[in-house]
Specification:
The protein has 126 residues and is mostly helical. It has five helices and no strands.
Length: 126
């Protein structure tokens, strides 16, 4: 059994805050790159929490809002970075976040609105 030094157990931290972090797809995808890890974790947490927010606000069709927000994010990212994202790791992370948002939001909306008659009658005809 080996003991690791405190340096190896520390969590990744950013040395400086950059306003382009939500749009940065050019960071080198590596486990040792703290900027990439912070971007990845913040993207996934944002998408997860957005699914909950959409479920609370719209109570139906969370998938529609999730797709719209993701499309807007890709467009804004392309405009801010002046380049279309071609990094497959970024697209994989975005797809996983989108999947999380849709599944999380739809499940919460379904169970929260199960007794709501307007949701039941509306979803039957859609």
């Amino acid at each position: 059994m080996t003991w690791h030094s405190k340096e190896k157990r520390s969590t990744p931290r950013l040395n400086k805050f950059d306003g382009l972090i939500p749009f940065d797809f050019k960071s080198e995808p590596a486990e040792s790159n703290s900027v990439y890890l912070v971007n990845l974790v913040s993207l996934e947490l944002t998408y997860f929490c957005s699914g909950i927010l959409f479920a609370a606000v719209v109570k139906r069709r969370v998938w529609d809002y999730a797709l719209t927000v993701t499309l807007l994010h890709v467009i804004i990212t392309s405009l801010v970075m002046m380049e279309f994202p071609m990094v497959w790791q970024w697209w994989l992370a975005l797809g996983c976040g989108l999947f999380l948002m849709i599944c999380n939001g739809q499940l919460i909306a379904y169970f929260a609105c199960q007794n709501d008659q307007t949701y039941a009658s509306f979803s039957m005809y859609q």
